[in-house]
Specification:
Layout lengths: L5 H16 L4 H14 L2 H10 L8
Helix pairs in contact: 1-2
Length: 59
Amino acid sequence: MSDEELPWVCWSKVKALLRKLAARTVSPLKVAVQQAAEAVTQRDAEGWFIHCGYSVPCD
């Protein structure tokens, strides 16, 4: 996977949650974006980077 594809992989979980929340006006959309962003865990982020061939530091 190329560097150009990385953002698409990273956004997949966020997009799925936004679709599920189905906010259609500005105020609910702001809340939905915040909830979706908060749902992304460190493990999710590490998995996305590893999937794309990047190394991540070990704890």
